[in-house]
């Protein structure tokens, strides 16, 4: 099967890993609880109760449930957003140059 014959989701440059984990977004000193939907090597998709502006810098924390494993901490810049459904608040973070 050629690349053009594959479904759109398979054409992505980076595979998304489904996570469904609680995450804290920190913006301007405010902690915003959210849910990480998925991760890829160049970004993440979260479901959050509020919107952000393109270029906003945030800190992201995903705590680990296991003492032996360190959680994930990142400081992405908000490069864009997407809405999956009108009722959902799914936003895409992307690593910006």
From TrEMBL:
It comes from Pseudomonas syringae pv. maculicola. SUPFAM superfamilies: PilZ domain-like (SSF141371). It holds the Pfam family PilZ. GO terms for molecular function: cyclic-di-GMP binding. This is PilZ domain-containing protein. Residues 10-79 form the PilZ domain. InterPro entries: PilZ_domain.
């Amino acid at each position: 099967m050629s690349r053009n014959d594959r479904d759109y989701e398979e054409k992505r440059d980076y595979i998304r890993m489904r996570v469904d984990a609680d995450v804290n977004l920190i913006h301007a000193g405010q902690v915003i609880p959210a849910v990480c939907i998925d991760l890829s090597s160049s970004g993440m998709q979260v479901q959050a109760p509020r919107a952000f502006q393109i270029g906003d810098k945030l800190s992201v924390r995903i705590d680990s449930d296991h003492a032996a494993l360190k959680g994930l901490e990142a400081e992405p810049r908000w490069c864009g957003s997407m809405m999956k459904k009108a009722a959902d608040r799914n936003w895409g973070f992307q690593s910006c140059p």
